[in-house]
Amino acid sequence: MPSARPSLPARLGGRLRAFFALDDEWVRPSPGIGQSDLTFGLVMLGLGLRALELSRSAGGLTGVTEPRWVQMLTVAAGALPLVARRRYPVAVGVFLALHMFVVGVTMGPVMGQLAMQISYFIALFSLVAWSRSRRTAVVVGGGIIAFMLLWVVWQFALGSGASEYLDARPEDASTGIFAPLPAAIILSFAVNILYFLGALVGGQVAWRGARQRAALEAQAATIHEQADSLRRRAVVDERLRIARELHDVVGHHVAVIGIQAGAARRVLDRRPAEAAAALGRIESSSRDAVTQMRGLLGTLRDIEDTADGTNPDVSQGSRDGDSRTPEPTLADLATLVGDHDSGSLRTAYRLVESRDGAHRDVPAPVGLTLYRIAQEALANVSRHSTATRVDVVARVECEGRAYAEVEVVDNGRPRAGTSGSGLGQLGMRERAASHKGMVDIGPRPVGGYRVRVRIPLGEKDV
């Protein structure tokens, strides 16, 4: 059965509890007593003394019998504690509440001055706004309000408040729809309730504003930390990308060098010209490997400078002036496949396009990804397979569901004792996944091994 709806007092209590944040554990930082606090206290002292003399000149202190220096000391005692209102809000609030009661009983006209009323209001306001504990603020502030309202009741019920009011009222004063004494009592209660509740609610509103500002500052700090974390993550991701690039470059060129060295060794005595050509390809491949690795390591140094806050453009100018070769694309696949061709491994390359020149419109990141995947697949064939033939097909489709694809198929099987670490194939999958590509890697039912990767192209890519 559905639970009964809470009663009106329960709902009202819940709203008050939420407004005064009684369950909030946040503690407002306690500021020290600064120059602004000293200035504020002195300003309030000056206003109080000036108001005292103006009231004396206007005849408002005729009923006060205490000496002038006592009156001035009383005003100072009500203004100077405001210097510590933010550092010790509860103590200042309680002290000025007692000050208001004692001075009101002994020197009512002095307590009733506007400057003194402002001081009492600020003390109660600061008690709620700066108190470290919400429960303490509400309990002490509520206790002060209850005490002051009881004091008003005591003045009218048991004190001389009613008689003083009736004596001061002219005999020929007009009477409204309410009797004079009840009207005075209601009006006095209304003014005091608005006065004290205004200080209480205003202080809580100020506290909630400070709480919100603190939450915003914490969020800003969290966002800053997350931005730093994302920046570091981007550096790490780029390092991983360069590590894969190095893996592919080194693996490819080492495989080519191994193939050409084996071919040169076989024909060195019988066909010196072919051996010289193979050695020339070894020399070219080794130089290409060194050039690409220097470029990648230069990029890695740029990443380190960026992570350290250094301007990469400036730092690069102080280096040895390495020239960066352009990243390979689909147009370089033919050369890549040709480098792996030798007497023991025959390679073939074919480009299939839906229109002439479509491969040149493939985005550079996609082209680089397909090139590196083909490079890794060919290196794996050279290192781990008994294949004697490899066919590489690149396809670019611009109509309908546009895509770019590379497929590497060989006719061999795994060579015993040459199992790899699997990082090469993992790198292929990660590269393809970065472009939302599909990967098909594994043995074929009819024999051999196939690596096929297809990457979708958007409209802007074609």
Automatic annotation (TrEMBL):
Region (Disordered): 301-328
Keyword Transit peptide tagged: no
Pfam families: HATPase_c (PF02518), HisKA_3 (PF07730)
TM regions (residue ranges): 88-108, 114-130, 137-157, 177-203
EC number: 2.7.13.3
Enzyme class of the recorded protein, top EC level: transferase
Domain of life: Bacteria
GO CC, one annotated term: membrane
Keywords on record: ATP-binding, Kinase, Membrane, Nucleotide-binding, Phosphoprotein, Transferase, Transmembrane, Transmembrane helix, Two-component regulatory system
Residue spans of biased composition, Polar residues class: 308-318
Protein name in the entry: histidine kinase
Taxonomic lineage from the root: Bacteria, Bacillati, Actinomycetota, Actinomycetes, Micrococcales
